[in-house]
Amino acid sequence: MLHKFSLVILLFSSFIVKAQFTDDADRLKNMPYMQYYINCDSTSSGSNLAHRYCLNKEFQETDSILNVTLNKVLANYENSSSKNDIIQIQKTWVSNRHNQARLVSYGYKGHMSGIKYLHYMVVSTKSRTKELECFLVP
What we know:
Layout: H1 2-21, H2 23-29, H3 48-76, H4 82-105, H5 110-133
């Protein structure tokens, strides 16, 4: 009985962590321009819309990798007070990523604003994933 209860708590806590850290990805994948299909493997689409679309797709992928990595890290700290510290640090990082991306894109208009914003989101997310990988136990 205790084992089943522990499993339910573990699954619920994983859901909470995922829900807390996917707000940016959920918001960005629902942007109106994402309704179009643009082949990001083709180098021939050089429009600003295509660039923004492809950066958004890249962000979706890098953010997904970040969340997988974060969940692996948290699994290493399952019975530790450090787990809560990592969650709080990640919440702060997510907020900072969003605010810094807004600052980087400040002053640009239209698709260029989105391109600057998304580029920063991709670069910072890749960097954070590398940081989190340092916490993984070999």
